[in-house]
Design goal:
206 residues, 5 helices, Multimeric flavodoxin WrbA, Rossmann fold, alpha/beta, 6-stranded mixed β-sheet
Length: 206
């Protein structure tokens, strides 16, 4: 099996619609670029550009954009959530995506496994306030709850000076520590995704 067998989906939780610039979009794209160095193809979806209905079902009816996004997730091996920090929390847009992922708890394969089993998740966080570790902890737990696996070092983040107006997208260059952390995230995530694709989790007894 080669790295090119893998694909990734990056869900961006910025509150800013396209075509405006977004720091979380930028970091998400950088994660995808690093995954690409391992032969992984992928797509970036800015969630706020789509009418994702509130709810905890896989399909909330007419006009709901989630089923199409969900199909992209099911077709991918790797899911990346990229979010800004708002009031020390993941964005409301990313939280809505997590609520919709809750619907996966009712979806199982012929051997009783969630359809998300064998898929690997990673997280990217940006903000100019404290809270990157808190945000990643919330997302890690939620992603694991709905069946995703996480590799070592499954988060990359940038947090600027508190109460300042400098955004990640305004930096002249990517800080070396962020770049190296993103590279590690990509390498470990691809490593785990390849292992799980080659050796799936055992059938579930539930």
């Amino acid at each position: 099996m080669t790295d090119s067998d893998l694909t990734a989906l990056v869900l961006v939780g910025t509150l800013t619609p396209s075509p405006e610039r977004s720091s979380s979009q930028l970091l998400g794209e950088q994660v995808l670029a690093e995954l690409g160095k391992h032969g992984v193809g992928g797509t970036v979806v800015r969630l706020v550009d789509h009418d994702v209905k509130p709810g905890v079902q896989v399909d909330m009816g007419p006009g709901d954009a989630w089923p199409a996004i969900r199909q992209q997730m099911l077709d991918a091996d790797i899911l990346v959530l990229s979010t800004p920090i708002w009031m020390g929390q993941p964005s409301s847009v990313i939280k809505r995506a997590l609520e919709r992922l809750d619907g996966e708890l009712s979806e199982k394969d012929d051997e009783g496994r969630l359809l998300t089993y064998g898929k690997v998740a990673a997280v990217a966080v940006v903000g100019n306030e404290d809270g990157a570790h808190h945000v990643s902890a919330e997302l890690f737990q939620a992603l694991n709850d709905v069946g995703f696996s996480l590799a070592a070092g499954a988060v990359t983040y940038w947090v600027g000076e508190a109460m300042s107006g400098v955004d990640y997208q305004d930096l002249d260059e990517t800080p070396e520590t962020v770049a190296s952390t993103t590279a590690t995230l990509a390498a470990n995530t691809v490593h785990l995704a390849r292992r799980l694709k080659a050796a799936p989790y055992p059938p579930s007894g539930g």
